[in-house]
Every structure is written in structure tokens, then in C-alpha cells.
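Practice problem 4.
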């Protein structure tokens, strides 16, 4: 419990200054999938069956926000990320105790160094929460399997083995880089002299059946894909053994060079971050001193260990874990990018660094034991200080990216609080050297979250009039069309009249352009059709306000009112026959969550029934649309759009004079 408490303090020191109110300027497909999926379906990632559980912790964060009544907020995402961060260190500590049961101080220090390991450039970026997620499942699987080998009761061993295989499955079907570690772990248990080797031999086939099935599915996937998968597009071009070995060594060394982990200069905050790093080091040293005192490990003839070779065993185990962390990553073209590739190695690196300072402090024996223990904890404190400094500064960097993105979205919402369905939003004069999106896809996905339940599309242009990377919408003649390249928008064909153009000026709140600049047109288009005033109405969605932390000082916010109780599209078609090969999926309340996201907490809302948002739950059946809602004063109301409801608008209001 003491170790877990100190680890929590370390995480809070690194996480609290900048991360709780940071968000996701990129990787927003994850919250969008949660927004548009069912409660259970949101846990799955159907786009890649071999990464089926990538969404797990993103969707869990989303559901926590919904349960707390703060739907749209990124705070629960940050909290779950921090808990996974803590769990990575604490599970490592528990696992190390299985291998070094008489060396609690060693395990405490190694777990702390796993916590502060900060060689990865994606540190404190919640868009990579799935990295901590698959590591959590992997460590849990390791721990459960090690306990299963040691328990005396066969029934308990069987249950623990099944649970270990379940966690192993969740890990592999979230990400694949740890597969060699999963394959090696039973062998590591085998060489441990205290293990029940017969028990291990019995349960190992069940353990190995999970990665064996995964490997078979992977081979089949790539055999049938003919080089068209995302993973195949990012593979390295040269497979020379010397190059592979050089990249392997480069990554192992980068994972251990704790003094070089801080890479982003932020001079304006380094003073505060340095004080926090000193606080983290002090907490670690203080916790270590308590552990030593409680365990009396300082009275042993060998430094904090039962046997002198314990440190060498820890070093060997750490080297194995570190070496097995990288083979999958060095297959990438960006093998030296230090982005998303270093998280997994934190476990081995924590053990290696602990063993190295342990060996350094074990000699000479003439030095008093108390002094050697103090130096051991002090050297560990230096690593903790460097790691926490790097991690906190990385948190500041991620926060700066988020604030830049948030300001851009606030500028859009200041000019267009709410838009009609099938609107194309164009952002102009984005500074090329300070791009808040990086790709048109991230603006497009942000707009889907900004205008929930409304099909919209977005693109942007730089201040030199060049289009954004990935721009795939073209204005030509009287229409916007998708050119079938890049990321597909929800709106792939729309009239020029459905255009809203915002001038990027986040400090001034953003301004709506009154005329359409000719340079937006692919060849020539009818710019006189541009009339944004008819497309803009209402107030900013409460979900968007919470997501982007907007106040009434910058945008027009709803005072809150509508509570959608039930929304059904096609209730009159429930059970109706549909053509062969098609499915009738109509259920009562099938789009309650969708309409609630679009209209919940608004004073008044006009919801347009579109196929882009609702799909077609009963093909070739003319469907009605029924909705029931309540207002803050207790009034209830309902409205029905008769068949065919597609393309029509239902009016929802909590204004007394406008109730149906």
C-alpha cells in the first residue's frame, strides 16, 4: 500500500500541473466513435479486427463523463489516463515482488522508475491512451499467470489461468508490439527456481493458444490484404541486418538515457517544473526510507538484497524485457522517432536502472551500510527527478497544443454557434507555422464533435491561400464535392450555398466572412450563392462547451433545458419485412442518445433527420420519427414526423410558447 501511495503522489506531481484540463486536438476519432456507437458497441474498434479493443479505455472515459453528467468533457479521459499510468508502475511493482519476494526496496525503486520513465515523445498525450491500455492488460496477464503457477489449490489456479489468458487476449487485440514479451514470459517463469514447473507446463499451452491464434489471424490478414493495410504502409524500406540491429540498440539506449529525456525546451515554465521534479524526488526518497525501515533490509550484509547475485538477476531480467520491447517497433520506417515506441520498454528500463545503481552501491563493503543505502536512494531520486521533469514538461507541451486547437475551435463557434445539416465549414488564414490541426481530417472530426448530431464537413486554408494537408473537398461551379482522396467527410456533396467561411483570429473571437474568396474555387464557382447567415442559428451545444471549456464570454451558450427521453426512427416499420440481404434493425428508442447529443440541454433545437446521422434502420419502408422530451420545470412534450420522415426537421423546444 505504501508503494502504491507514493506512486500515486509521483503521478499527481507530473499530471496535475497541465494535464487535467488538456484535451485531444488529434486522434478524435475515438470520442467520435463513442458519440456515434451504442453503449456496448463503443468498446469495439471494428475498423481493424486485430485491434478490436483499442477503444476500450477511450470509451470507458466517455461513459464515465456521461454518467457524471459532464458529457463531452475530456477530464474523465485524463483521469483514466492517469490511473493507467499509475497502474503501469504498481503492477510492475507487484510483478517484481513475485520474482524478488525478499527485496521489497528493490521492487519499490524499480516500480517508481517505471512510473517516471519518460523517453517517449507521446508522454502525457491522451490520444495514445491505448498504449498504456495494452500495457495494463499485459502486466495484469503476467501477474495473474505468475500467481496461478504458485497457488496451491488447482481450482484457483485454473480460474487465475483463464483470467490471465483473458487479459492476454485484451492486450494483444489492442496492440501487437508486446507479442514477444507474451511469448517469453512463461520461459522467464520456468527459469525461476521457486516456481511449480509441472503446473507451468500444464497451463502454458492455454497461455500460448492466445498468441498462436493471433499470429495465424495476422498472417491471414496480410496475405489477403495485398499490401493495402495501414500497417504495411508504414513499414521500413530497408531490412539490412546491420540497420535493424543499429535501430534496436538506438532505442534501448534512448530508453535508458534518463538525463536526455527532456527534449522540448519550455524556458518559461522550467523553473516551476524543476521544483516539482525536486518534490517528486523527495517523495520517492522519503517513501524508500520508510520501506527500508519497515523491512529492516538495511541490516543485511548485502545491499538491500538476500543474495549478492540478486542485483545481477534483476539486471538480466531487465535486459530481456527491454530487448523484447522493440523488435516490432524497429520494423517501422520511423524506428528512431521515439514516438509511441518507448512506453513498453519502461518496465525493463526501470529494472535495469535499479539494478545498475544497486550494483554501484554494493561495493566497496568497507563503506557503512547506511551510507550505501542513502546513496542508492539518492541515485534513484536523481532518476526520478529527471523523469518527472521530462514528463511534466511534456505535459506542458501537450497542453500548449491543446490550447492552440481550442482557440481555433472557439473562433469557429464564435462565428457559427450552430449550423444546418450538410454545411461545409471553411477556416481561412490559418498560420502555416502554427497550424492547430496539422491535417484537414482533424478539423473535420473536431467539427463533428462541435456540432453533435449534425452532418458537417470542414477544411481550411493557410494564410498564403494554400490548402491544408489532406484537403479533399473541392468547390466547383455550384457545389462542393469530395475528390475521393484522403479522409472521407460526412458531407461529400453540397451546394455552395451551404458554406460557412470563418477568418481565423482566435484572439479576436473569429469572424464570419460576408463574401466567398475566389481562390477557394477549384476552377470557377458561383460565389454569389454564398449566404452564411441563413445557415447559422441557435447556441453552442453544451457538450461542445464542456469539451472545449468555453464560457459565455467567448461564445453564445445555451442556458440548458431539453432532456430527450426517447427518440425512435421508424417505429411504424418495426417488424416490417425488408428485401433479402437487408436487415430491419428498428427498436424503440433507437436514436435517443443521438438526438440527446444534438439537442440535450438546449433551449430550442431543430433536428434534421438525415441518413448520414441515422442511417436506414428499415430499408424500403417509409419511416416516421417520434420524440419525447421533458423540460426543467417538469413539463413534457412529444412530437411525431409522419412517414417518410427522412429529410424533414422536427422542432424541439422548452420555450412555453413553442411547446407542440
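Answer key:
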Amino acid at each position: 500500500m505504501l508503494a502504491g501511495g507514493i506512486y500515486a503522489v509521483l503521478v499527481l506531481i507530473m499530471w496535475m500541473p497541465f494535464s487535467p484540463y488538456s484535451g485531444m486536438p488529434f486522434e478524435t476519432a475515438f470520442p467520435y466513435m463513442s458519440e456515434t456507437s451504442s453503449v456496448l458497441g463503443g468498446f469495439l474498434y471494428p475498423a481493424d479486427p486485430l485491434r478490436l479493443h483499442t477503444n476500450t479505455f477511450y470509451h470507458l472515459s466517455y461513459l464515465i463523463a456521461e454518467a457524471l453528467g459532464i458529457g463531452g468533457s475530456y477530464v474523465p479521459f485524463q483521469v483514466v489516463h492517469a490511473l493507467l499510468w499509475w497502474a503501469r508502475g504498481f503492477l510492475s511493482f507487484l510483478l517484481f515482488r513475485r520474482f524478488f519476494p525478499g527485496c521489497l526496496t528493490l521492487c519499490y525503486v524499480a516500480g517508481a522508475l517505471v512510473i517516471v520513465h519518460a523517453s517517449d515523445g507521446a508522454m502525457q498525450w491522451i490520444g495514445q491512451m491505448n498504449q498504456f491500455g495494452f500495457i495494463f492488460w499485459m502486466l495484469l496477464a503476467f501477474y495473474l499467470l505468475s500467481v496461478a503457477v504458485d497457488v496451491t489449490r488447482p481450482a484457483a489456479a485454473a480460474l487465475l489461468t483463464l483470467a490471465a489468458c483473458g487479459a492476454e487476449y485484451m492486450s494483444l487485440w489492442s496492440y501487437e508490439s508486446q507479442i514477444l514479451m507474451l511469448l517469453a514470459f512463461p520461459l522467464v517463469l520456468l527459469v525461476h527456481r521457486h516456481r511449480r514447473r509441472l503446473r507451468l507446463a500444464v497451463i502454458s499451452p492455454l497461455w500460448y493458444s492466445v498468441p498462436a491464434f493471433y499470429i495465424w489471424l495476422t498472417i491471414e490478414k496480410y496475405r489477403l490484404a495485398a499490401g493495402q493495410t495501414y500497417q504495411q504502409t508504414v513499414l521500413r524500406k530497408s531490412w539490412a541486418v546491420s540497420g535493424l540491429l543499429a535501430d534496436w540498440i538506438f532505442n534501448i539506449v534512448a530508453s535508458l538515457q534518463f538525463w536526455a529525456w527532456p527534449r522540448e525546451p519550455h524556458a518559461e515554465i522550467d523553473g516551476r517544473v524543476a521544483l516539482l521534479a525536486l518534490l517528486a524526488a523527495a517523495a520517492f526518497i522519503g517513501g524508500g526510507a520508510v520501506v527500508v525501515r519497515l523491512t529492516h533490509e538495511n541490516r543485511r550484509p548485502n545491499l538491500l538484497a538476500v543474495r549478492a547475485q540478486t542485483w545481477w538477476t534483476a539486471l538480466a531480467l531487465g535486459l530481456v524485457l527491454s530487448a523484447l520491447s522493440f523488435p516490432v517497433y524497429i520494423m517501422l520506417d520511423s524506428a528512431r522517432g521515439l514516438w509511441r515506441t518507448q512506453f513498453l520498454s519502461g518496465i525493463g528500463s526501470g529494472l535495469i536502472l535499479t539494478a545498475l545503481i544497486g550494483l554501484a552501491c554494493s561495493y566497496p563493503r568497507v563503506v557503512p551500510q547506511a551510507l550505501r543505502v542513502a546513496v542508492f536512494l539518492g541515485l534513484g531520486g536523481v532518476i526520478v527527478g529527471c523523469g518527472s521533469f521530462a514528463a511534466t514538461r511534456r505535459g506542458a507541451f501537450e497542453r500548449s497544443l491543446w490550447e492552440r486547437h481550442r482557440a481555433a475551435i472557439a473562433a469557429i463557434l464564435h462565428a457559427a454557434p450552430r449550423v444546418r445539416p450538410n454545411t461545409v465549414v471553411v477556416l481561412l488564414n490559418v498560420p502555416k507555422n502554427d497550424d492547430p490541426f496539422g491535417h484537414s481530417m482533424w478539423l473535420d472530426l473536431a467539427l463533428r464533435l462541435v456540432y453533435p448530431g449534425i452532418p458537417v464537413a470542414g477544411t481550411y486554408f493557410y494564410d498564403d491561400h494554400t490548402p491544408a494537408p489532406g484537403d479533399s473537398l473541392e468547390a466547383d461551379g455550384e457545389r462542393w464535392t469530395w475528390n475521393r482522396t484522403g479522409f472521407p467527410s460526412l458531407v461529400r456533396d453540397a451546394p455552395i450555398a451551404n458554406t460557412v467561411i470563418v477568418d481565423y483570429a482566435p484572439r479576436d473571437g473569429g469572424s464570419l466572412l460576408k463574401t466567398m474568396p475566389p481562390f477557394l474555387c477549384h476552377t470557377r464557382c458561383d460565389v454569389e450563392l454564398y449566404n452564411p447567415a441563413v445557415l447559422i442559428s441557435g447556441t453552442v451545444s453544451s457538450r461542445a462547451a464542456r469539451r472545449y471549456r468555453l464560457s459565455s464570454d467567448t461564445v453564445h451558450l445555451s442556458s440548458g433545458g431539453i432532456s430527450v427521453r426517447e427518440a425512435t426512427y421508424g417505429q411504424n416499420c418495426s417488424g416490417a419485412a425488408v428485401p433479402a440481404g437487408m436487415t430491419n434493425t428498428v427498436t424503440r428508442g433507437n436514436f435517443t442518445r443521438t438526438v440527446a447529443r444534438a439537442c440535450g440541454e438546449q433551449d430550442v433545437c431543430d433536428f434534421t433527420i438525415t441518413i448520414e446521422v441515422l442511417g436506414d434502420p428499415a430499408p424500403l419502408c417509409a419511416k416516421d420519427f417520434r420524440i419525447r422530451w421533458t423540460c426543467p420545470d417538469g413539463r413534457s412534450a412529444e412530437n411525431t414526423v409522419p412517414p417518410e420522415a427522412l429529410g424533414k426537421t422536427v422542432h424541439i423546444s422548452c420555450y412555453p410558447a413553442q411547446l407542440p
